[in-house]
Amino acid sequence: MSTMLDKIRADLSARLAERSAKAGEIDTILAAAEARDDSALTEDETKQFNEARDAVKALDETIDSLNTRANEIDDLDKRNAEREQLAKDLQPAETDPAKRQWKVTQDEPTYRDGGKHSFFQDAYAARFGSGFGAVGERLARHSNEVRLGMHGEVRDLSTGAFGDGLVIPQYLPEKFAENLRAGRVTANLCASENLPDEGMTLTIPRGTTATVVESQSDQNTAVTEVDFDETDLVIPVRTLAGQQDLSRQSIERGRGTDTIIYRDLAGAYSVKLDSQVINGAGTNGTHTGILATASIGSVTTGTATGRSVLAKIAQGIATVAGSRFMAPDVIIMHPRRWGWLTALTDSNDRPLVVVTKNGPQNARGTVDNAGYGYVGDLQGLPVYTDGNIPTTISTSTITGATEDNIIIAKSDDLLLWEDGVAPRQFRFEETLGGSLTVKLVVAGYSAFTAGWYPTGVAVISGSGMTTPVYPT
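Request: output the structure for the sequence above.
Response:
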């Protein structure tokens, strides 16, 4: 249940970040009213306040539910461990001397001068004889004596003197090292929607021409009129899938091989979805990602200095706020960019981004942890690192140069629809049944758009975002 607990805690962390952003919106609205010494909110402020308040209330309910579930699973894990230990403690002590091979209490070693049994005879019998009976018990007991140092090792032979029949290699499948994956950090930050049960496209009407209000030039003169217009935003439903053929023998005679493959395919699915949310081209069955969406905000930096990049981040925040008329709530960048920012100092060797526990001193940002995903704050916004942000984006300013981009967004404007259970797992035994081959498949349907409100995103790019050079 630890995997489920990790997922719940990751979701809980994301919801807490959302709530912090919404609470910040409320503070901003109230601060504006206080600044003009007004006890009442404007109509727009009232609308924004109510929306933010309702969002905080809904997030609190979700947070309480997730926290309760996490505590229940954590408590259940602890109680399961206690019960397992209690069951072990209550097992009766073994009284049969022939079965006490792992609890050596004899004063004399199993193999000794003048003893009844010979180590070499038993070793030969175990290797070439009829198998492990009393011989195997004696060898195991002797091995335990040597391990505990009860009688010392009296032979000069090492384990290399015997084959795998005597010194058996131990495999630890429970310690299987899974393939490393960058996860789906950005996808988890998007507004999550349930994909409808039918259809391969989603259509959202978008206002493209707004009405206009002007002062009437004089009495009985025509009032300004501009016709409202809208255009449909059509979002295709995409299919992401992967497969692996396994021999029936590897599944039936192996240990957890199908589970390992399913988990690896699911990890690959998450990475591909996240990559397309960020940088999908919208062709050949891919999503149109954030970086490929038309009309998003753009900020260009041509200087690879921390001061310049931090200034451009502030400009990106202003770009969203000035066009979307609402504040962004998240900054997403590649881990290499965040690591570079945290390494930079000003002319007095003071860090531009400081560790929170040391206390900020004129800092532009703070580091909450040196991990992956949520890592700290810049300009008052939470920063998330995502290894799926490409680092090979060609720039037009320097021939052959590459760059990574920083995404500043109002995460609620990034819409991601997914199946309730995604990716789904499929197992086909008939397709290649004549070869005793089993086909394992994972697949899922999803739809994504950053075009609902493209002005809710600003991207920082340019020659100043090429491969960072760390200070020496």
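The chain is about 35% helix and 20% strand.
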